[in-house]
Design goal:
- This protein is mostly helical.
- The model has no long low-confidence stretch (mean pLDDT 86).
- The chain contains 2 helices and no strands.
- The N and C termini lie far apart (60 Å).
Length: 78
Amino acid sequence: MAAKKKAAPKKAAAAKGGKKKAAPGELIISKSRTKAAVTCKVSSEFYAAFDEFARSALAKAQARAEQNKRSTLRPQDL
């Protein structure tokens, strides 16, 4: 009978929130979820364009929220 291996210790979560911002070259959209959401094929160039579109929409929504003196994005900001 083989001995059981011990599980590797879990990494400690980063302090303050634990989430990191996407690096400028890193996609904020998910390729697999994008592909699963449509019934047609997706070109490799589409992901970068879609990511750029999403970043632009987020920037505009953030600006609108800040103009309205809010720190929370709401659906109407889109």
